[in-house]
Design goal:
The chain is an alpha/beta fold and 293 residues long. The chain has a single domain (5-194, 219-238, 276-288), classed as 3-Layer(aba) Sandwich (Rossmann fold). It contains 9 helices and 7 strands. It has helices at 14-25, 37-50, 65-79, 102-130, 152-175, 195-206, 222-231, 243-255, 262-272; strands at 5-9, 29-34, 54-59, 84-87, 133-138, 179-185, 285-288. Helix 1 (14-25) links the parallel strand 1 (5-9) and strand 2 (29-34). Helix 1 packs parallel to helix 2 (37-50), helix 4 (102-130) runs parallel beside helix 5 (152-175) and helix 8 (243-255) packs antiparallel against helix 9 (262-272). The radius of gyration is 19 Å and the shape is globular. It starts with a strand and ends in a 5-residue tail after the last strand. 42% of the residues are buried.
Length: 293
């Protein structure tokens, strides 16, 4: 795909860092945003080494609307415009529903939900002016299926992101068909910088005995998720989500989850979500609506 200018929030580590490095190899211009300036500088330096056409580091607190607006202006001032906005920043805490406090909910929703709303609103205004663009929201499979109850607030926040993404997509589908809105829902993945989280996720995945054939869930590697997000930066026509097929899939899984074979599970998921390839029970789901010309 042609070189693009791509804004990535939460770019200092994890999926954001991986996506930045992957896009750098393709020669894109990157606008990297996060709170940790030192980490951002390191990511930018590596991106330049890998072949990025240009990099811009913007220290950003995504929970503040003014910071997001400043990020957009900085990208436009530096590169004239931007083509893709990736809302990737997020955080989680280990709390069950019974343990959650007001402070927990406020903090989690500020980072995981408000930041996405701010990013979508700012990016949409810019894309309306230029007539096209793409927003990619990085959510989580846990926003649909509460497999890890100890991440309750995080799961709820990601469910909100899913709903907001779908609503924006429907708002724009007629009035601005050149603006694409995409949702990415990674499953569990390895992150070497957070051994405690990795251990907790592995522990949770090993207890999910209802998965096909009782197999422990597979932990994805960060490069796998990064490749998926990177490919979405070049929109291609695809079929919209099929509610009727999804309903049949959900009913089948609810009735006999333990009896479904790996092949049956893959078939059910692919039938309900065209274009999504099956990798493991905790797959990365991509939901998008393309407008045919």
């Amino acid at each position: 795909m042609a070189n693009k200018t791509i804004v990535i929030t939460g770019a200092s580590a994890g999926i954001g860092e991986g996506v930045a490095h992957r896009l750098a190899r393709d020669g894109h211009r990157l606008v990297l945003a996060a709170r940790q300036r030192g980490r951002l500088d390191a990511v930018a330096a590596e991106a330049t080494r890998l072949g990025a056409a240009g990099t811009l580091v913007v220290e950003t607190d995504v929970t503040r609307r003014t910071d997001i607006e400043q990020l957009s202006r900085a990208a436009i001032d530096a590169f004239g415009s931007y083509d893709v906005w990736i809302n990737n920043a997020g955080r989680g805490i280990t709390r069950s529903v019974q343990q959650l406090t007001d402070e927990d909910l406020d903090a989690i929703f500020a980072v995981n939900v408000k930041s996405v709303v701010y990013g979508m609103q700012v990016a949409v205004e810019h894309f309306k002016q230029r007539g096209s663009g793409q927003i990619i929201n990085v959510s989580s499979f846990l926003g649909r299926v509460p497999l890890a109850t100890f991440r309750s607030a995080y799961n709820a926040a990601k469910a909100a992101v899913n709903a907001l993404t779908a609503n924006l997509r429907m708002e724009l589908r007629v009035s601005h068909p050149g603006i694409h809105v995409t949702l990415v829902e990674p499953g569990f993945f390895r992150r070497s910088s957070l051994p405690a989280t990795r251990s907790a996720m592995r522990r949770a995945s090993s207890t999910l005995t209802w998965l096909p054939q009782g197999r422990p869930a597979k932990l994805w590697r960060r490069p796998t998720v990064s490749r998926r997000v990177t490919r979405l930066s070049s929109p291609r026509p695809s079929s919209p989500w099929q509610p009727r097929s999804a309903r049949r899939c959900a009913l089948s899984l609810a009735r006999t989850p333990s009896r479904l074979s790996r092949r049956d599970w893959a078939s059910a998921v692919q039938n309900s979500t065209p274009g999504v390839s099956f990798r493991s029970p905790l797959l990365t789901r991509i939901e998008t609506h393309r407008h045919r010309q």
